Amino acid sequence: MTTRPRTRNTSHGKAYEYACLLALKEALDDSQPIRVEGSQQLRTACTRFLELPTEHRERLMSSASAAATYIIRLEPQLENPSDNTPLYLSLQSDARGQAGDVRDVLCLRKQNGWEIGISCKHNHYAVKHSRLSQSIDFGKQWFDRPCSPIYFAEIAPLFHELAAMRAAGTLWSSVNNKAARFYTPLLRAFLAELKRLDKCEPGYIPERLIHYLMGQNDFYKVIAEMRSRTTRILAFNINGTLNRPAGSHRSLIQVPKLKCLSSFITSE
Question: Does residue 119 form part of some domain?
């Protein structure tokens, strides 16, 4: 089977990461020293941003600026640095996401170890694009608990058929009854294996699944919804590290201007 690569979606996503970093820098630049840490990830994102038409860049920046305004009000350490300067801004590599850290933009004060992260999404809400295949042991990768031989035996015929179709040059768009033939039986086998794993260690799998999907670190998720020209901000504050006051002395403490809710929506 042949499928088209999602190069456009990936390029726009990288461009939006750069726009979010740039919007934070522009919003905070006048109040403190800011250091943007160079990396291949940053250079790639900048290139993807500059490749876009002017109108699209402006819309990305409008969305990113709206998000930056809200996040600064949620995080007083961004604009009240005390002696903790400079503020470091950076983009994480894709390898960090594969390792379980879904954050794209990092804001860091190295002097006191404070940091927050932002996951930037362009027109979609997915946290991770997880895959199933005949060779992927999702139990081992996600939970450090290997899948059973029963699971691999159940999915093997499905992937053998897919391999034969690919070898014959069959286009995925021309395949009939995809849900009944492939998606449904594969997902049923996946669900059955999740239940088997959970039965072996009750309570272990749900916690590890949350950490696999959300990562080990708290973060804000910013979604640019280009059609409606709105920006959604979601807070994933499982460990309680977001939306905290700044300052260590009672007279100098700065509290957040906004309370950390699960979701904020703002117009571009």
Answer: yes
Torsion angle of the four alpha carbons 92, 98, 99, 101, in this order, in degrees rounded to the nearest 10? 50
Residue 140: inside a domain, yes or no? no
What is the pLDDT tens value at each position of the chain, 268 positions in all?
Answer: 433 344 677 889 999 999 999 999 999 998 899 999 999 999 999 999 999 999 999 999 999 999 999 999 999 999 876 677 899 999 998 766 555 688 999 999 988 889 999 999 988 766 666 789 999 999 998 899 999 999 999 999 999 999 999 999 999 999 999 999 999 999 999 999 999 999 999 989 988 888 787 777 899 999 999 888 899 999 988 888 999 887 655 444 577 777 776 566 665 5
Co-location of 53 and 154 in the same domain: no
Its domain, for residue 173, covers 146-200
Whole-angstrom distance, CA of residue 95 vs CA of residue 85? 28
Structure tokens at 29: 């630049």
| CA–CA separation, 116 and 106 (whole Å) | 6
The C-alpha atoms of residue 33 and residue 214 are separated, in whole angstroms, by 31
Distances, alpha carbon 126 to alpha carbons 39, 71, 123, 130, in Å: 25, 20, 10, 10
**Separation of first and last alpha carbons in the chain:** 40
C-alpha 17/C-alpha 60 separation (Å) is 9
Structural contact between residues 128 and 97, judged by C-beta atoms closer than 8 angstroms: yes
The model carries a pTM of: 0.73
